[in-house]
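Technical note accompanying the year-one report. For the benefit of new consortium partners, we illustrate the data format agreed upon in the data management plan: each record pairs a sequence with a structure-token string. No post-processing was applied to the example shown here.
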Amino acid sequence: MRFAKLHGLGNDFILMESLPTMADAKLGTWARLLCDRHFGIGADGLILVLPGDKTPFKMRIINSDGSEAEMCGNGIRCFAKYVYERGFTKETEFGVETLAGIMRPRLILTEGKVAEVCVDMGQPRLNAADIPVVGYGSGSVINAELIVDDTLFTFTAVSMGNPHIVIVVDDLEHIPWQKLGPLMERHSAFPKKTNVEFVQQVGPQRLRVKVWERGAGPTLACGTGACAVVVACSLTGLVDRQATVELPGGELIIKWGADDHVYMTGPATYVFSGELQPEMIEILDKQ
């Protein structure tokens, strides 16, 4: 049973083309064990490369805690690089079905290899019910107040197919974001939990971000999070509709187009490939 390890700005994934037929609950167990950095391969998530129903491909992503995510921006760049360099398609633009809808990655090649991927991430969803957020009315949730750990924060909520809250701070280096992240992720205002992005503006069109990712914890990058950050900071007037987002693992270029679609451009990197040994498969089967 073969796998490949790829990362997008340090947000790393195990990609597999097939797994034994199993219930989704069992799939979550496999993801937890395979993503374990001591007893497994180690990753932020497990990505399944599947044939699509309406497009050539379908992507399923299981977080390291076993929960399934609707979408992952770094993950889909890795997915696109994988299917192209494995020879599953010769097209440099194609559709990928996800739980958040059909995404369209466009490959940027250098000497026949995928150097970067620009992904049409679709339209941001801003109505509270679509994110979802409860207790803040039915419209958009912009510069809303949230009390966590006896401290008042202001957040803007955005869905990029998965839920995000964006919190602008003055000093990113001194906020206890790893303590606040899990408290915000599981706050009762967010019935499906939420990703959390802490943001500091460091230039006219440049934003620095720390990410607490739903189901994975602190990660070096989050593609959908970077998109949500630019949308939120555009809505609140901090930036225009395009910005460079600095993440701990590197930079993404995000543009919120006139067509209301958000476009994300960034790299994907192949790390290694391997094969699960029979004893590991036996351990997984017993779980």
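Partners are asked to follow this layout when depositing records. The longest strand covers residues 101-110.
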